[in-house]
């Protein structure tokens, strides 16, 4: 696609645009100043600014119909929020100080992204990051709403206060990525060297029975220990069990809810 020039801005080009007719998500791949950026738009992220959300949804209709009301998808590329729009959608989530005060908080500029290829930092969300003291942790992007964020942080506080054994294979909260004005950008959790392998992926038709029994026992004993400490693993499913490089099972994700009964 043709490169574009803004007022005094470097030239950029939208080289790919994808969207789905099943939801309101869309993705741009943009080249600018010799760098490649992936920009993902989710209409729900504009919830604090109805005018931006309406405009985003309108341009998705334009893209679906190729042309609408005299506009084409090229006009979408030129559209961007400006000071005349009602409100900016914030990238961080504002959370109360008393919820965050129990945890170390790090400014985004203090967090180092760990990547074998530095160029990956331009096109993928960070996962493995390093704290100022050299500790390697897992970066989990912020929850979508205050309720789920509060629930998840409170659950990790219960785990912390329970004084569970260090060798218990569960994810733990090490801190928050938080700006000076109180916006939380993500959670810093235990880094588990698993190559993104969940129990769903690890269990295969040819998996040895002894290995299956090992994983079942590890999950059972971990959940039992959590319950003894008064901590509920609300989102219990195979996708929330990670299998590390030593074939050990880890229980993760304490942000899920549960039904009393």
From TrEMBL:
PROSITE patterns: PROTEIN_KINASE_DOM. InterPro entries: Kinase-like_dom_sf, Prot_kinase_dom. Residues 1-261 form the Protein kinase domain. It comes from the Eukaryota. GO terms for molecular function: ATP binding; protein kinase activity. This is Protein kinase domain-containing protein. It comes from Cephalotrichum gorgonifer. The lineage of its organism: Eukaryota, Fungi, Dikarya, Ascomycota, Pezizomycotina.
């Amino acid at each position: 696609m043709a490169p574009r020039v803004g007022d005094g801005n470097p030239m950029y080009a939208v080289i790919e645009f994808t969207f789905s007719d099943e939801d309101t998500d869309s993705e741009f791949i943009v080249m600018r100043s010799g760098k490649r950026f992936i920009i993902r738009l989710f209409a729900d992220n504009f919830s604090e600014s109805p005018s931006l959300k309406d405009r985003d949804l309108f341009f998705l209709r334009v893209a679906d119909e190729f042309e609408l009301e005299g506009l084409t998808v090229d006009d979408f590329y030129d559209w961007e929020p400006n000071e005349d729009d009602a409100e900016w959608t914030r990238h961080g989530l504002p959370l109360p100080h008393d919820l965050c005060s129990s945890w170390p908080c790090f400014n985004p500029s203090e967090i180092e992204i760990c990547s074998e290829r530095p160029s990956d930092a331009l096109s993928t969300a960070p996962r493995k990051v390093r704290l100022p003291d050299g500790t390697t942790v897992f970066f989990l992007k912020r929850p979508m709403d205050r309720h789920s964020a509060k629930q998840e942080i409170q659950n990790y506080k219960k785990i912390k206060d329970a004084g569970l054994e260090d060798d218990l294979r569960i994810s733990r909260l090490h801190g928050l990525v938080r700006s000076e004005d109180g916006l939380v950008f993500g959670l810093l959790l235990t880094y588990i060297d698993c190559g993104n392998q969940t129990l769903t992926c690890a269990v295969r038709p040819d998996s040895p029975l002894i290995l299956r029994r090992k994983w079942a026992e590890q999950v059972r004993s971990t959940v039992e220990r959590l319950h003894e400490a008064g901590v509920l693993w609300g989102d219990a499913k195979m996708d929330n069990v990670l299998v590390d490089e030593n074939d050990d099972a880890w229980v993760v994700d304490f942000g899920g809810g549960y039904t009393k009964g």
